[in-house]
Design a protein that fits this description.
- The protein has about 700 residues and is α/β, with parallel strands linked by helices.
- The chain has 29 helices and 14 strands.
- The strands form two sheets. It has an eight-stranded mixed β-sheet.
- The two termini are about 45 Å apart.
């Protein structure tokens, strides 16, 4: 029942649900206490509403956000509490006392301060918001960007301002209880004085010396940097904050390009969720601003997602446009008809090419280039189970999805059967259970199954620890734990080095990555991974959640995997290790293979996991594995050849397409030279040549410029 209420109210936990209930019930309790009247009861109910409201705001509760939609927003809740306090005074026969008039005057004046306070906060934020935000770009030497106002002034400013009424409320309640007006007027004075001081504290930050330059000055400075840097390859991305992973997966590839890279983002939320990188980044929310940037040196533009805002860069003819996507699978998104707009579509291997041919969505075969998957470089090839070590099987099911299709995940129908067979296997194996982070967010059945599987793994781990045939190397584990603590302390130290930037403008000014620090963090994360796996026995069953260790790290310590239809399977194929995929939708093995390319070299599991023995046999005796050659062939089909490496293939494709773009531009220049005698044709060709041109607000081809 509680889980149902949590889901309906869209709160994150039982604690949030309890706080929401207390806050909602607290206001009727306040009214009742005022009518009785009872000062202690009113004080208790007021404390509950203050604390519950504050807790929900700190948690960013969805329910709090929705209250404003039904005219019960933050300001209204404070105002109601203050009105009820006035009602309490009236019921206590203080209506003719000076404290009553002081209370009314205080709250009227206090709300009078809300308008200038809100106006100043909004004005400061708007005036400090620049038309672009950047990382790893030196704008500081070109324009002056002042420090942001202190965080304490602007962060959660409305909540801070409204909570200043606490002094008045407490003082008035004390006066009502003891019969003396002194405490009430002290509280009223503090509330009024602090409110005025807060407003006055904001005034200096409206002055011109505290705000960045005008938009045209900022854009001119950025163009000056672009003219000097001359980016050649751009990664362009637009999307919601939840889609930031789609651009993050390409950051390391961009860092390894042989050409000068640049990342262009369209949403500030994406910039805030971008992983650390050494590549220059420009966030340009406005379509007109983007089209006016000097991108004349760019020859190749890469797109990780098919979205409407792509048109703002696609319209530039002096560069070649490529769809690289954010994963290669049999899902419909991998063969979107939108892909026709690009000059080329790059896929990992032959499978991507065939996928477009079968879908027949208008993408020509000669526009498809196979470049491998550079992101898979960290995945190690299998060399068999080392002598003396218990084989490790990774169970990495995907989540339930939005549509309720039972074939989306194995966790509900097959998960427990899989894990039970694995933990009871003889000879023994180790189980690593790493569920998708979204598991249980839509389906309560999936959430319940996840909890049962977690309990199974933890119970099996405890039982194995008690078995005498398994002996831990305590000394090695202690050394690994000490190393883990050292690394985590250093990472925490490095994470705190930069500090939180005051606002976006300040982050733009100071957002140039320290390359040495960036490289040290990468090295420490690799060392952390080694220490983590050494900090517990190699035979210990483990539930792995959270960002670390990463999925690919789990691949590398595993000897086999059980999963569902998702990009996880396609990526695991790069290891060459045995794997099994569950036919949770009960299509039948042959139909399941026909519809899903990635399972053609897999052990197909029914929901009872009866076929799991075939996977374990392949791990224990690789020479007798009947699917070994099939996996090699499928790996090449899906991901391309091992040599040259994926990053070499990717760099080669970028270089080849850049030459095509340059050849096209040279041809256009030649045509322009030949057309000098015809001014009309020359004017038409001018816009097709490299160079900056001016766009206007109405010139966005019908696409929202924001």
């Amino acid at each position: 029942m509680i889980s149902t209420a949590i889901r309906v109210a869209r709160v994150g936990s039982a604690a949030e649900l309890a706080a929401a209930a207390l806050m909602i019930l607290g206001f009727p309790a306040l009214m009742l206490a005022a009518l009785v009247p009872s000062v202690p009861a009113f004080a208790a109910a007021a404390a509950v509403t203050y604390l519950a409201d504050h807790y929900l705001h700190r948690k960013g509760s969805y329910l709090i956000n929705r209250l404003s939609k039904v005219r019960a927003g933050l300001s209204i809740r404070f105002l109601i509490r203050q009105f009820l306090l006035i009602l309490l005074l009236a019921r206590l026969s203080h209506a003719n006392d000076l404290i009553f008039y002081g209370t009314v005057a205080c709250f009227i004046a206090f709300y009078g301060l809300q308008a200038p306070h809100g106006a100043l906060v909004t004005l400061i934020r708007n005036r400090r918001r620049m038309p672009v935000a950047t990382r790893n770009i030196d704008l500081q030497s070109r324009i002056r960007i002042p420090d942001a106002p202190p965080r304490r002034l602007l962060h959660r400013s409305a909540e801070k301002m409204l909570h200043l009424d606490l002094f008045a409320v407490v003082g008035i309640l004390v006066s009502a209880q003891v019969g003396s007006s002194v405490a009430g007027f002290v509280g009223i004075g503090l509330t009024a004085a602090l409110g005025v001081l807060y407003v006055l504290g904001l005034v200096p930050y409206v002055r011109s010396g505290k705000i960045p330059p005008r938009a045209d000055v900022v854009l001119a400075a950025l163009d000056d940097w672009l003219a000097g840097y001359k980016p050649e390859t751009v990664l362009y991305f637009s999307g919601s904050k939840d889609s930031a992973y789609q651009v993050n997966m390409w950051l390391e590839t961009m860092e390894q390009l042989n050409t000068r890279p640049l990342i262009i983002l369209r949403e500030r939320a994406i910039l805030n969720n971008l992983a650390p990188t050494t590549v220059p980044v420009i966030c340009v929310p406005g379509g007109v601003h983007l089209m006016n940037l000097d991108l004349s040196a760019v020859r190749v533009a890469l797109y990780a997602a098919n979205v409407g805002k792509n048109i703002h860069l696609l319209r530039v003819p002096t560069m070649k446009h490529v769809f690289i996507g954010h994963g290669d699978s049999d899902k419909l998104a991998s063969v979107n008809p939108y892909s026709k707009v690009y000059d080329e579509v790059w896929t990992a291997g032959r499978a991507g090419r065939d996928r477009y041919a079968i879908a027949d969505v208008g993408v020509r075969d000669d526009d498809i280039v196979e470049v491998g998957r550079p992101q898979l470089a960290p995945i190690q090839s299998w060399q068999g189970v080392p002598d003396g070590r218990v084989p490790t099987v990774l169970y990495a099911p995907t989540w339930e999805g939005w549509d309720g299709n039972p074939g989306n995940t194995s966790i509900v129908l097959a998960g427990e059967n899989i894990v039970k067979k694995l933990v009871k296997a003889d000879p023994p194996v180790r189980v690593l259970y790493k569920p998708h982070p979204f598991t249980g967010t839509v389906s309560k059945e999936a959430g319940a199954a996840h909890k049962r599987i977690t309990a199974l793994v933890e119970k099996a781990a405890a039982e194995r620890a008690a078995e005498t045939r398994f002996t831990p190397d305590s000394a090695a584990q202690d050394r690994a734990k000490a190393e883990l603590a050292r690394i985590e302390a250093r990472l925490a130290q490095l994470s705190g080095t930069g500090g939180d930037k005051g606002d976006e403008a300040e982050a733009t000014r100071d957002g140039i990555v320290d390359v040495a620090r960036h490289e040290e963090v990468a090295r420490l994360r690799a060392e952390w991974n080694t220490a983590y796996w050494g900090s517990f026995p190699s035979y210990e069953h483990r539930v792995i959640t959270g960002a670390e260790p990463r999925l690919y790290d789990c691949f590398n310590v595993s000897d086999a995997m059980v999963s569902d239809i998702s990009s996880v399977v396609s990526d695991f194929i790069a290891s060459g290790k045995p794997y099994a995929v569950t036919d949770s939708g009960e299509m039948g093995h042959e139909e399941f293979k026909r519809q899903n390319t990635a399972v053609r070299a897999a052990v197909i599991l029914s929901n009872d996991a009866a076929e799991l023995g075939g996977l374990l046999d392949a791990v224990r005796d690789p020479s007798g594995d009947p699917l070994r050659d099939d996996r090699k062939e499928l790996k090449r089909y899906l991901l391309g050849p091992d040599e040259p490496t994926s990053i070499d293939q990717f760099n080669g494709a970028v270089a080849g397409l850049a030459l095509k773009a340059e050849a096209r531009n040279v041809g256009q220049e030649a045509r322009l030279g030949a057309a000098n005698a015809d001014p009309a044709e020359a004017a038409e060709l001018t816009n097709a040549l490299p160079g900056q041109r001016t766009a206007t607000a109405g010139e966005t081809d019908g696409v929202n410029a924001g």
